[in-house]
Specification:
The protein is built from seven helices and no strands. With 158 residues, the protein is mainly α. It is rod-shaped, with a radius of gyration of 32 Å. The chain starts with 24 loop residues before the first helix and ends in a 12-residue tail after the last helix.
Length: 158
Amino acid sequence: MQQPSLEQLNDIIEPGQAGWWPPSWLTIAVVATLLAGVLVLATVLFRRWQKSKVRKAAIKQLLQQKDANIEQITVLLKRAALAYYPRELVATKHSRTWLVFLLAPLSNNERASFEPLLQQADKNFYGTEDNDFNRNYYQLARLWLSKDLSKQPGVSDV
């Protein structure tokens, strides 16, 4: 057998670089998952921002009404609560049950300082208003609105 000479051999042609298109199925799945995750995160953050806007507006309005009566404070708090809780839960709360609802997310020390409001609730919500009760109720409203309402106990916990 005769050996071919080097001159008769063809040059070796290197293949070009591999293109990125079309992507593999794995790449498509990863990109789709990432996009879905970003969309869900953006939606959650946007809703949280909207709800915090309600809470901040309520705080601003409460600070402008330093001499507000019990009814005005309650209406303001219920409007803020409706942004976070179902209407059925908020609408059924009144007097003592409303105060228990407001006290639920507070720490034990904070709750202990506002416990006397519970004994005076019926008298002040449905009878004559006491300035001391009104002042404490205002402080409770400020404290409750200062909390992150989205992290407070839900329907089953209250």
